[in-house]
Design goal:
The protein is of the alpha/beta class. It is built from 14 helices and 16 strands. Strands 4-14-13-12-11-10-6-5 form an 8-stranded parallel beta sheet. It has a 3-stranded antiparallel beta sheet with strand order 1-2-3.
Length: 380
Protein backbone atom coordinates (compact mmCIF):
# COMPACT_ATOMS: atom_id res chain seq x y z
CA UNK A 1 0.00 0.00 0.00
CA UNK A 2 2.77 2.47 0.90
CA UNK A 3 6.18 2.87 -0.69
CA UNK A 4 8.70 5.07 1.12
CA UNK A 5 10.87 6.94 -1.36
CA UNK A 6 13.18 9.29 0.52
CA UNK A 7 13.74 10.52 4.07
CA UNK A 8 15.34 13.91 4.72
CA UNK A 9 18.82 13.73 6.26
CA UNK A 10 18.27 16.59 8.73
CA UNK A 11 14.64 15.98 9.77
CA UNK A 12 12.15 13.10 9.76
CA UNK A 13 10.40 14.46 6.63
CA UNK A 14 9.81 11.85 3.96
CA UNK A 15 8.18 11.25 0.59
CA UNK A 16 6.21 8.21 -0.44
CA UNK A 17 3.37 6.87 -2.54
CA UNK A 18 0.07 5.37 -1.42
CA UNK A 19 -1.44 2.82 -3.79
CA UNK A 20 -5.19 2.78 -3.24
CA UNK A 21 -8.18 1.25 -4.99
CA UNK A 22 -8.98 4.48 -6.85
CA UNK A 23 -5.45 5.63 -7.64
CA UNK A 24 -2.02 6.54 -6.33
CA UNK A 25 -1.31 9.40 -3.93
CA UNK A 26 2.06 11.07 -3.47
CA UNK A 27 2.93 12.04 0.10
CA UNK A 28 3.17 14.33 2.00
CA UNK A 29 -0.39 15.09 0.97
CA UNK A 30 -3.14 17.48 1.97
CA UNK A 31 -6.68 16.16 1.59
CA UNK A 32 -9.42 18.73 0.88
CA UNK A 33 -12.41 18.18 3.15
CA UNK A 34 -15.66 17.12 1.50
CA UNK A 35 -17.70 16.51 4.64
CA UNK A 36 -21.03 15.67 2.99
CA UNK A 37 -19.73 14.39 -0.34
CA UNK A 38 -18.66 17.75 -1.74
CA UNK A 39 -15.77 20.15 -1.21
CA UNK A 40 -17.75 23.32 -0.56
CA UNK A 41 -18.30 25.51 -3.65
CA UNK A 42 -15.80 23.53 -5.79
CA UNK A 43 -16.75 21.38 -8.78
CA UNK A 44 -15.06 17.96 -8.90
CA UNK A 45 -13.56 18.83 -12.28
CA UNK A 46 -11.74 21.74 -10.62
CA UNK A 47 -10.27 19.36 -8.05
CA UNK A 48 -9.12 17.07 -10.88
CA UNK A 49 -7.68 19.88 -12.98
CA UNK A 50 -3.85 20.09 -12.96
CA UNK A 51 -4.07 23.45 -11.16
CA UNK A 52 -5.23 21.65 -7.99
CA UNK A 53 -4.75 17.98 -8.88
CA UNK A 54 -6.27 16.77 -5.59
CA UNK A 55 -5.41 13.07 -5.49
CA UNK A 56 -7.53 12.26 -2.43
CA UNK A 57 -10.35 13.95 -0.52
CA UNK A 58 -11.96 13.36 2.86
CA UNK A 59 -15.58 12.57 3.73
CA UNK A 60 -17.32 12.45 7.10
CA UNK A 61 -18.83 9.14 8.19
CA UNK A 62 -21.11 10.67 10.80
CA UNK A 63 -22.65 13.24 8.46
CA UNK A 64 -22.98 10.81 5.52
CA UNK A 65 -24.60 8.27 7.84
CA UNK A 66 -27.25 10.82 8.84
CA UNK A 67 -27.78 12.16 5.34
CA UNK A 68 -28.11 10.67 2.74
CA UNK A 69 -27.76 7.44 4.76
CA UNK A 70 -26.45 4.00 3.89
CA UNK A 71 -29.58 2.95 2.00
CA UNK A 72 -29.08 5.73 -0.53
CA UNK A 73 -25.32 5.20 -0.72
CA UNK A 74 -25.80 1.49 -1.34
CA UNK A 75 -28.31 2.18 -4.09
CA UNK A 76 -25.71 4.28 -5.91
CA UNK A 77 -22.90 1.81 -5.31
CA UNK A 78 -21.07 4.08 -2.87
CA UNK A 79 -19.94 7.67 -2.55
CA UNK A 80 -17.59 7.64 -5.54
CA UNK A 81 -20.46 7.02 -7.94
CA UNK A 82 -22.87 9.21 -5.96
CA UNK A 83 -20.64 12.31 -6.19
CA UNK A 84 -18.92 11.43 -9.50
CA UNK A 85 -15.41 11.27 -8.03
CA UNK A 86 -13.09 8.54 -9.27
CA UNK A 87 -10.06 9.22 -7.08
CA UNK A 88 -9.46 7.99 -3.51
CA UNK A 89 -11.60 9.00 -0.53
CA UNK A 90 -10.65 8.78 3.14
CA UNK A 91 -13.46 8.85 5.69
CA UNK A 92 -13.20 9.48 9.41
CA UNK A 93 -15.04 7.28 11.88
CA UNK A 94 -17.29 9.81 13.58
CA UNK A 95 -14.91 9.87 16.54
CA UNK A 96 -14.46 13.63 16.30
CA UNK A 97 -18.22 14.06 16.61
CA UNK A 98 -17.95 12.09 19.86
CA UNK A 99 -15.84 15.03 20.99
CA UNK A 100 -17.56 17.97 19.29
CA UNK A 101 -21.15 16.88 20.02
CA UNK A 102 -20.47 16.02 23.65
CA UNK A 103 -23.82 17.40 24.81
CA UNK A 104 -25.68 15.07 22.43
CA UNK A 105 -23.94 11.76 23.12
CA UNK A 106 -23.25 9.06 25.69
CA UNK A 107 -20.18 6.82 25.62
CA UNK A 108 -20.48 3.19 26.74
CA UNK A 109 -18.35 0.07 26.36
CA UNK A 110 -20.37 -0.88 23.30
CA UNK A 111 -19.98 2.42 21.48
CA UNK A 112 -21.53 5.88 21.33
CA UNK A 113 -25.21 6.77 21.39
CA UNK A 114 -26.16 10.09 19.85
CA UNK A 115 -29.00 12.43 19.31
CA UNK A 116 -28.88 13.59 15.73
CA UNK A 117 -27.82 17.22 15.52
CA UNK A 118 -30.51 17.63 12.84
CA UNK A 119 -33.68 16.30 14.47
CA UNK A 120 -32.70 14.74 17.79
CA UNK A 121 -33.40 11.18 16.64
CA UNK A 122 -31.38 8.44 18.39
CA UNK A 123 -28.27 7.08 16.68
CA UNK A 124 -25.58 4.61 17.65
CA UNK A 125 -22.01 4.19 16.46
CA UNK A 126 -20.00 1.11 17.43
CA UNK A 127 -16.54 -0.05 16.34
CA UNK A 128 -18.25 -2.45 13.97
CA UNK A 129 -21.06 -0.22 12.68
CA UNK A 130 -18.74 2.63 11.65
CA UNK A 131 -16.87 0.16 9.45
CA UNK A 132 -20.15 -1.11 8.01
CA UNK A 133 -21.08 2.49 7.19
CA UNK A 134 -17.71 3.07 5.55
CA UNK A 135 -18.20 -0.11 3.54
CA UNK A 136 -21.41 1.45 2.18
CA UNK A 137 -19.54 4.67 1.49
CA UNK A 138 -16.89 2.70 -0.40
CA UNK A 139 -14.01 4.54 1.28
CA UNK A 140 -10.48 3.78 0.12
CA UNK A 141 -9.20 4.47 3.66
CA UNK A 142 -11.45 3.88 6.68
CA UNK A 143 -10.76 5.21 10.17
CA UNK A 144 -11.66 3.12 13.20
CA UNK A 145 -13.84 4.43 16.04
CA UNK A 146 -12.02 6.22 18.86
CA UNK A 147 -12.75 8.63 21.68
CA UNK A 148 -11.06 12.02 21.38
CA UNK A 149 -10.41 13.45 24.89
CA UNK A 150 -10.83 17.20 25.33
CA UNK A 151 -8.05 19.56 26.32
CA UNK A 152 -7.28 19.91 29.13
CA UNK A 153 -8.17 16.52 30.62
CA UNK A 154 -7.04 14.85 33.82
CA UNK A 155 -4.67 11.92 33.42
CA UNK A 156 -7.13 9.48 34.98
CA UNK A 157 -9.76 10.39 32.38
CA UNK A 158 -7.30 10.10 29.49
CA UNK A 159 -6.08 6.70 30.74
CA UNK A 160 -9.63 5.33 30.86
CA UNK A 161 -10.47 6.86 27.49
CA UNK A 162 -7.35 5.40 25.91
CA UNK A 163 -8.09 1.94 27.30
CA UNK A 164 -11.59 2.11 25.80
CA UNK A 165 -10.23 3.29 22.45
CA UNK A 166 -7.81 0.36 22.44
CA UNK A 167 -10.58 -2.15 23.19
CA UNK A 168 -12.57 -0.64 20.35
CA UNK A 169 -9.49 -0.98 18.12
CA UNK A 170 -9.30 -4.71 18.89
CA UNK A 171 -12.97 -5.11 17.94
CA UNK A 172 -12.40 -3.13 14.74
CA UNK A 173 -9.44 -5.34 13.83
CA UNK A 174 -11.57 -8.44 14.36
CA UNK A 175 -14.27 -6.98 12.08
CA UNK A 176 -11.65 -6.27 9.41
CA UNK A 177 -10.33 -9.83 9.55
CA UNK A 178 -13.82 -11.22 8.95
CA UNK A 179 -15.36 -8.63 6.63
CA UNK A 180 -12.70 -6.59 4.78
CA UNK A 181 -14.12 -5.63 1.36
CA UNK A 182 -11.65 -5.71 -1.54
CA UNK A 183 -9.70 -2.48 -1.85
CA UNK A 184 -10.48 -0.92 1.53
CA UNK A 185 -7.69 0.02 3.95
CA UNK A 186 -7.98 0.67 7.69
CA UNK A 187 -6.11 3.09 9.95
CA UNK A 188 -5.79 2.97 13.72
CA UNK A 189 -5.83 6.23 15.69
CA UNK A 190 -3.24 7.11 18.34
CA UNK A 191 -4.77 8.97 21.27
CA UNK A 192 -3.29 9.75 24.70
CA UNK A 193 -3.88 13.47 25.14
CA UNK A 194 -0.82 15.50 26.10
CA UNK A 195 0.76 12.73 28.19
CA UNK A 196 3.94 11.48 26.51
CA UNK A 197 3.89 7.99 28.00
CA UNK A 198 0.23 7.48 27.06
CA UNK A 199 0.88 8.59 23.49
CA UNK A 200 3.77 6.17 23.22
CA UNK A 201 1.76 3.33 24.76
CA UNK A 202 -1.16 4.01 22.40
CA UNK A 203 1.14 3.89 19.38
CA UNK A 204 2.82 0.65 20.48
CA UNK A 205 -0.48 -1.07 21.26
CA UNK A 206 -1.95 -0.12 17.88
CA UNK A 207 1.14 -1.26 15.99
CA UNK A 208 0.66 -4.72 17.49
CA UNK A 209 -2.77 -4.84 15.81
CA UNK A 210 -1.11 -4.30 12.42
CA UNK A 211 -3.38 -1.74 10.76
CA UNK A 212 -2.70 -0.52 7.21
CA UNK A 213 -1.73 2.93 8.50
CA UNK A 214 -1.87 5.05 11.62
CA UNK A 215 -3.33 8.43 12.51
CA UNK A 216 -2.41 10.73 15.35
CA UNK A 217 -5.73 11.93 16.74
CA UNK A 218 -6.87 14.19 19.53
CA UNK A 219 -4.97 17.19 18.16
CA UNK A 220 -6.27 20.68 17.47
CA UNK A 221 -8.74 20.39 20.36
CA UNK A 222 -7.48 23.47 22.20
CA UNK A 223 -3.97 22.41 23.17
CA UNK A 224 -1.04 24.83 22.70
CA UNK A 225 0.85 24.32 19.45
CA UNK A 226 4.05 23.07 21.18
CA UNK A 227 2.02 20.30 22.86
CA UNK A 228 0.46 19.38 19.52
CA UNK A 229 3.89 19.10 17.94
CA UNK A 230 5.15 17.13 20.94
CA UNK A 231 2.39 14.55 20.51
CA UNK A 232 3.58 13.93 16.95
CA UNK A 233 7.22 13.77 18.06
CA UNK A 234 6.39 11.06 20.59
CA UNK A 235 4.08 8.94 18.43
CA UNK A 236 5.66 9.09 14.96
CA UNK A 237 8.96 7.31 15.76
CA UNK A 238 7.02 4.40 17.29
CA UNK A 239 4.96 3.87 14.14
CA UNK A 240 6.26 1.62 11.33
CA UNK A 241 8.41 3.33 8.72
CA UNK A 242 6.72 1.38 5.94
CA UNK A 243 3.20 2.58 6.73
CA UNK A 244 1.60 6.02 6.31
CA UNK A 245 1.16 8.45 9.20
CA UNK A 246 -1.76 10.85 9.29
CA UNK A 247 -2.30 13.89 11.55
CA UNK A 248 -6.07 14.33 11.73
CA UNK A 249 -7.75 17.72 11.34
CA UNK A 250 -4.62 19.85 11.02
CA UNK A 251 -3.94 22.68 10.41
CA UNK A 252 -2.31 26.02 9.58
CA UNK A 253 0.30 25.94 6.77
CA UNK A 254 3.28 26.46 9.09
CA UNK A 255 1.99 23.69 11.37
CA UNK A 256 1.83 21.29 8.43
CA UNK A 257 5.44 21.98 7.54
CA UNK A 258 6.48 21.50 11.18
CA UNK A 259 4.62 18.19 11.32
CA UNK A 260 6.12 17.00 8.03
CA UNK A 261 9.53 17.61 9.62
CA UNK A 262 8.43 15.22 12.36
CA UNK A 263 7.60 12.42 9.94
CA UNK A 264 3.88 12.94 9.20
CA UNK A 265 2.63 12.07 5.70
CA UNK A 266 -1.08 12.98 5.50
CA UNK A 267 -3.24 15.93 6.55
CA UNK A 268 -6.77 17.27 6.29
CA UNK A 269 -8.32 20.47 7.53
CA UNK A 270 -11.45 22.55 6.92
CA UNK A 271 -9.52 25.82 7.20
CA UNK A 272 -8.79 26.51 3.50
CA UNK A 273 -12.47 26.37 2.57
CA UNK A 274 -13.87 27.68 5.86
CA UNK A 275 -11.80 30.85 6.10
CA UNK A 276 -12.39 31.52 2.40
CA UNK A 277 -16.10 31.83 3.15
CA UNK A 278 -15.17 34.40 5.80
CA UNK A 279 -13.06 36.48 3.41
CA UNK A 280 -9.57 35.27 4.34
CA UNK A 281 -6.80 34.24 1.94
CA UNK A 282 -3.66 32.25 2.71
CA UNK A 283 -0.42 33.61 1.25
CA UNK A 284 3.28 32.96 1.69
CA UNK A 285 3.33 36.08 3.89
CA UNK A 286 0.52 34.88 6.17
CA UNK A 287 -3.22 35.41 5.99
CA UNK A 288 -5.08 38.35 4.46
CA UNK A 289 -8.49 39.32 5.81
CA UNK A 290 -9.98 40.91 2.72
CA UNK A 291 -12.92 42.30 4.66
CA UNK A 292 -10.58 44.88 6.14
CA UNK A 293 -10.96 48.40 4.76
CA UNK A 294 -7.23 48.60 3.92
CA UNK A 295 -7.86 46.48 0.80
CA UNK A 296 -10.71 48.58 -0.60
CA UNK A 297 -8.55 50.44 -3.17
CA UNK A 298 -5.83 47.78 -3.49
CA UNK A 299 -5.13 46.94 -7.14
CA UNK A 300 -2.64 44.18 -6.28
CA UNK A 301 -3.64 40.73 -7.57
CA UNK A 302 -4.41 38.11 -4.96
CA UNK A 303 -1.34 36.27 -6.21
CA UNK A 304 1.06 36.32 -9.12
CA UNK A 305 0.85 33.56 -11.73
CA UNK A 306 1.99 30.36 -10.05
CA UNK A 307 1.00 31.69 -6.62
CA UNK A 308 -2.76 31.40 -7.03
CA UNK A 309 -5.31 29.34 -8.91
CA UNK A 310 -5.47 30.27 -12.62
CA UNK A 311 -9.13 31.33 -12.28
CA UNK A 312 -8.05 33.88 -9.65
CA UNK A 313 -5.25 35.43 -11.69
CA UNK A 314 -5.70 39.13 -12.42
CA UNK A 315 -8.47 39.78 -9.91
CA UNK A 316 -7.45 42.53 -7.52
CA UNK A 317 -7.70 42.33 -3.77
CA UNK A 318 -9.99 45.33 -3.92
CA UNK A 319 -12.40 43.56 -6.27
CA UNK A 320 -12.44 40.34 -4.25
CA UNK A 321 -13.09 42.42 -1.13
CA UNK A 322 -16.05 43.99 -2.94
CA UNK A 323 -17.44 40.53 -3.76
CA UNK A 324 -17.01 39.27 -0.20
CA UNK A 325 -18.56 42.37 1.38
CA UNK A 326 -21.59 41.91 -0.84
CA UNK A 327 -21.92 38.16 -0.24
CA UNK A 328 -21.35 37.42 -3.90
CA UNK A 329 -20.79 33.71 -4.56
CA UNK A 330 -17.91 34.44 -6.93
CA UNK A 331 -15.94 35.94 -4.06
CA UNK A 332 -16.05 32.85 -1.88
CA UNK A 333 -15.43 30.65 -4.94
CA UNK A 334 -12.28 32.57 -5.86
CA UNK A 335 -10.95 32.53 -2.30
CA UNK A 336 -11.74 28.83 -1.91
CA UNK A 337 -9.88 27.96 -5.11
CA UNK A 338 -7.00 30.20 -4.08
CA UNK A 339 -6.69 28.66 -0.60
CA UNK A 340 -6.90 25.09 -1.88
CA UNK A 341 -4.26 25.95 -4.48
CA UNK A 342 -2.04 27.37 -1.73
CA UNK A 343 -2.28 24.23 0.42
CA UNK A 344 -1.91 21.72 -2.41
CA UNK A 345 0.92 23.68 -4.01
CA UNK A 346 2.66 23.83 -0.64
CA UNK A 347 2.64 20.02 -0.56
CA UNK A 348 4.14 19.92 -4.06
CA UNK A 349 6.92 22.28 -2.94
CA UNK A 350 7.55 20.17 0.16
CA UNK A 351 7.78 16.93 -1.83
CA UNK A 352 10.19 18.53 -4.27
CA UNK A 353 12.35 19.90 -1.44
CA UNK A 354 12.53 16.54 0.34
CA UNK A 355 13.44 14.73 -2.86
CA UNK A 356 16.20 17.17 -3.83
CA UNK A 357 17.63 17.38 -0.30
CA UNK A 358 16.69 20.99 0.44
CA UNK A 359 13.75 20.47 2.83
CA UNK A 360 15.42 21.84 5.95
CA UNK A 361 16.29 25.12 4.21
CA UNK A 362 12.82 25.25 2.62
CA UNK A 363 11.15 24.70 6.00
CA UNK A 364 13.14 27.45 7.70
CA UNK A 365 12.53 29.98 4.91
CA UNK A 366 8.83 29.17 4.55
CA UNK A 367 8.03 29.38 8.25
CA UNK A 368 10.07 32.53 8.79
CA UNK A 369 8.29 34.28 5.93
CA UNK A 370 4.82 32.95 6.79
CA UNK A 371 5.07 33.96 10.44
CA UNK A 372 6.89 37.19 9.74
CA UNK A 373 9.31 36.44 12.54
CA UNK A 374 12.50 34.58 13.34
CA UNK A 375 12.11 30.82 13.18
CA UNK A 376 11.85 29.00 16.52
CA UNK A 377 13.81 25.79 16.95
CA UNK A 378 12.11 22.53 15.94
CA UNK A 379 11.67 21.44 19.56
CA UNK A 380 10.29 24.76 20.80
Amino acid sequence: MFTLHKTDTETAARTGTLELAHGSVETPVFMPVGTRGTVKSVHPSELLDPALDARIILGNTYHLFIRPGTEVLNSFGGLHEFMQWDRPILTDSGGYQVFSLSKLRKITEDGVTFQSHLDGSPLELTPESVLEIQRSIGSDICMILDECPPYPAEREYVEKSLALTQRWAVRAREWVEKNRPPGQRYFGIVQGGCYDDLREKAARDLVELDFDGYAIGGLSVGEPVPEMLRAAEIAAPVLPEDKPRYAMGLGQPDQLVELIARGIDMFDCVLPTRVARNGTAYTADGTLNLKNAKWEHDTTPLGAPGETHPLCEGYSRGYIRHLIKNDEILGLRLLTLHNLFFYLNLMKQVRRAINDGSFSAFKDAFIRRYRGEDLPTQNS
